[in-house]
Amino acid sequence: MYEAYFATLIEELGSRGFPVTDLNRLRKTTPTARSLEQALVAALDQTQDAGLAIDYGLRLNLASHGILGYALMSSRNGDQLLALLTRYAVLAMPGLSFNRVLAQDQLRVVCETSGGALPPQFATELVLTTLVAGARALFNRRIPGAEIWLDFERPVHSPRYAALKIPVKFGQPYSALVCQRSFLNMEVASANPVMAELGTKQCSDLLAQMQERFGITAQVRRSLLSSPGQFPNQLAMAKRLSISDRSLRRKLSDEGSSYREILDEVRFELAKRYLQTSELSVTQVSDLLAYEDTSNFRRAFKRWSGVTAQAWRAQHS
Question: The whole model's pTM is what?
Answer without folding.
Answer: 0.68
